Amino acid sequence: MTTSLGIEHAFSGFAVPDIDAALEFYGDILGLDIRPGGMGLLRLHLPGGAEIIIYPKPDHVPATYTILNLDVADIDVAVDELIARGVEFLRYDGFPQDEKGVSRGGDPQIAWFTDPGGNILSVLHSA
User: Fold this and answer.
1) Which end of the chain is more exposed for a tag (fewer CB within 10 A), N or C?
2) Using CA atoms, how far apart are residues 81 and 83, in angstroms rounded to an integer?
3) What pLDDT, on the 0 to 100 scale, is given for residue 1?
4) How far apart are the first and last CA of the chain?
């Protein structure tokens, strides 16, 4: 579908300080489809069809908000697997989180972590 503006495709993007570290993290640790995108960029293809470009920024400052949410079938399986792969989960004041870092106080259940550039991501599961 083309919009009245002629938009045929849309995508998001975010910066990282180290493209090689991002390629390894998003591909090997998270198991997502990520490929070189030309001009030093990466193209992250998400389940469901969305696309994100990841670009290098030497003076990168990590986002202070969640840049990417990964909806999972079973949050405990996902968190356990990420912990086994070396991911450390964040703790936030005001959110009841269990020993793994999962907030189960409402819907969705959610756990936050960062990529190598310090950008915040989450795994979540809606009941």
Assistant:
1) N
2) 5
3) 67
4) 32
pLDDT in tens, 71-98: 999 999 999 999 999 999 999 988 889 9
The residues spanned by each domain of the chain are 12-125
Q: In a 3-state reduction of DSSP, which class is residue 103? A: strand
Cα(23)–Cα(42) distance, integer angstroms:
7
Residue 59 CB partners (closer than 8 Å, separation 6+): none
53: helix, strand or coil: strand
d(CA 15, CA 22): 10
SS3 at position 76:
helix
Highest CATH level, class, for 12-125: alpha beta
pTM for this entry: 0.91
Strand ranges of the sheet holding 33-38, from the earlier edge strand across to the other edge = 12-16, 51-56, 41-45, 33-38
